[in-house]
Amino acid sequence: MHESNIAKKFGGTRPVFSVEFFPPKTEEGARQILRTAAKLKDIRPDYVSITYGAGGSSRERTMDYGLLLRDIFDFVVMPHLTCVGHSKAEIAQIMKRYASEGLTNVMALRGDPPKNQPDFKPNPDGYTHASQLVSFIRQNYPEFGIGCAGYPEKHPEAATIQQDIENLKRKVDCGADFIVTQLFFDNSHFFEFVEKCRAAGIDKPIIAGLLPALSYKQVVNFKNMCSTDIPSRLLESLERARDDEEAKQIGLDWARAQIDELKANNVDGIHLYILNRAESALKLGRFVR
Ligand SMILES: Cc1cc2nc3c(=O)[nH]c(=O)nc-3n(C[C@H](O)[C@H](O)[C@H](O)COP(=O)(O)OP(=O)(O)OC[C@H]3O[C@@H](n4cnc5c(N)ncnc54)[C@H](O)[C@@H]3O)c2cc1C
Fold this sequence. Notes:
Elements: E1 16-21, H1 27-40, E2 47-50, H2 58-71, E3 77-82, H3 88-100, E4 105-109, H4 130-140, E5 145-150, H5 161-173, E6 178-183, H6 187-199, E7 206-210, H7 216-226, H8 232-240, H9 244-264, E8 269-273, H10 279-288
Parallel strand pairs: 1-2, 1-8, 2-3, 3-4, 4-5, 5-6, 6-7, 7-8
Helix pairs in contact: 4-5, 7-8, 8-9, 9-10
Flavin-adenine dinucleotide binds next to strand 3, helix 4, helix 5 and strand 6.
């Protein structure tokens, strides 16, 4: 039986390797996630995570697909959970369901405001910060593995990186076991972030989040959405790519170089944002190990 608490997987001779899925919305999307999961079974990520939607029915699908990924493919699964729109009582209900289904890891997040709302407004009976969600989970489910989000290039709402790291420390002090970072394309941001976290007394594992780029358009979107710095060498190569295949290869080569350097610097873990596609994980997974 493999270790199911993600918090206990760190400290080995290689980085913890994980991939992220999102719950599909269409029938073709449903077929794709199952095809991808089947292909990834052989490379055995240490865990897989599944995101939590901004609202509506996709939220139910986090649980549904989380269970499918565990029961059919035998993955250790970490469903995400956000505070957006939920009262504390609803969060308590969802956590009860996760626990009763034997899902014993959770990625605890605040979540983003809905697209038509510029600022995050908590549910009047809900949580304002992810640290409060972490605290609730730790107090009521002491045996759970709890992940939380970190931002090497600062969360967009935070005034300074230092303040953001203080808020990250709050999540760790409230009981988070490990940190998964926002995607980044320049490792120097990650290395500086880890140094600042350690200086601030954050001693939990920090998993590097990498997105193997697919196209120029995609990385520009991410730059706008997450304020991620895109090194000009990557941006220019993607812009010059003659077709999708060449762009994909550029993205894979870039991510591979990031992985090599992260490993050489003893990174705790590498998390691939695979967008429900198998190719990047199949091509890069063996370099993580
Ligand atoms: C690895 C990863 C996975 C993600 N998965 C999802 C997902 O599945 N679904 C989804 O909707 N979104 C997801 N997100 C996006 C995330 O929900 C957003 O980035 C959101 O805006 C912040 O969430 P958080 O958990 O980091 O919030 P928080 O930790 O609450 O931080 C949000 C902001 O508030 C500040 N802050 C925190 N605590 C305090 C405090 N006590 N006082 C003042 N300011 C404070 C922080 O500095 C930061 O600027 C993910 C992000 C990452 C990095």
